[in-house]
């Protein structure tokens, strides 16, 4: 990475061919948190990686700071995991260790964004896991960024018992139950002084908003609770 080229430009260049929705101001905020928290103990955990846009920004911060690894957890759906609902919208379900884990069930994906943003991924790549690993290796981050196909519960089962997290980025299932459950699970590894961030906060997902309000803003366990960009919310664990 060049010390004189703006990080914003470097991130933009790194993610320019990676499908996804995370805007550059959000990626820069994630990078900055991951970089400036490098003096804390612990790794970075991302729940919800899709094709790797945010994982690349987090990986670049781990690389530049020389501190910590990035663990990425996603259901990584294949093309055949997607199905059309009766109203023409789309959802998917993936088999994880014999459990069928669904996504986009509560807030389904409309046909137009599915055809525009999701279907083309499966024309370019064998699946989203292949898209993700391509993004990571194209940016020289394979030794720092790892992926697990599963949900948070299945990841924590195989993660080292000593896992400590200095920054958790939550961008998986957006239902209230799932976000609440993910916060509770992450709290087992999130260090005091570490950061938790949420995508799609206070934008258009009631489940995400309500879970953040109850378990983060109204909780005594967190400080510096702040919406940072249009849809990225961050808080620090006391
Ligand atoms: C909006 S995308 C993530 C985008 C990514 N952070 C980026 O910057 O490009 C949401 C992701 O969450 C994943 N997902 C949904 N439910 C999940 C769950 N229960 N566990 C793990 N991943 C899940 C989906 O497979 C999808 O890849």
Description:
- The structure is a single chain.
- With 238 residues, the chain is of the alpha/beta class.
- The chain has a single domain (7-237), classed as Vaccinia Virus protein VP39 (Rossmann fold).
- It contains eight helices and ten strands.
- Strands 6-2-1-7-8-10-9 form a seven-stranded mixed sheet, sandwiched between helices. Strands 3-4-5 form a three-stranded antiparallel sheet, with no helix packed on it.
- The chain is globular and about 50 Å long.
- S-adenosylmethionine binds at residues 20-22, 47-50, 53-54, 73-75, 77, 101, 103, 151, 171-173, 178.
CATH architecture descriptor: 3-Layer(aba) Sandwich
Number of domains: 1
Give the overall shape, derived from the CA principal axes: globular
**CATH H level, superfamily name:** Vaccinia Virus protein VP39
- Give me the Rg, rounded: 17 Å
Write the H/E string, N to C.
HHEHEEEEHHEHEHEHEE
Low-confidence stretches: none
Helix content, binned percent? 25-40%
Please, what is the average pLDDT?
97
Q: DSSP strand (E) fraction?
A: 15-25%
Main pleated sheet: 7 strands, mixed
Bound molecules: S-adenosylmethionine
Annotation field: number of helices:
8
CATH domain topology: Rossmann fold
CATH domain class: Alpha Beta
Fill in the keyword field for this structure.
Rossmann fold, globular, seven-stranded mixed β-sheet, binds S-adenosylmethionine, single chain, 10 strands, three-stranded antiparallel β-sheet, 238 residues, alpha/beta
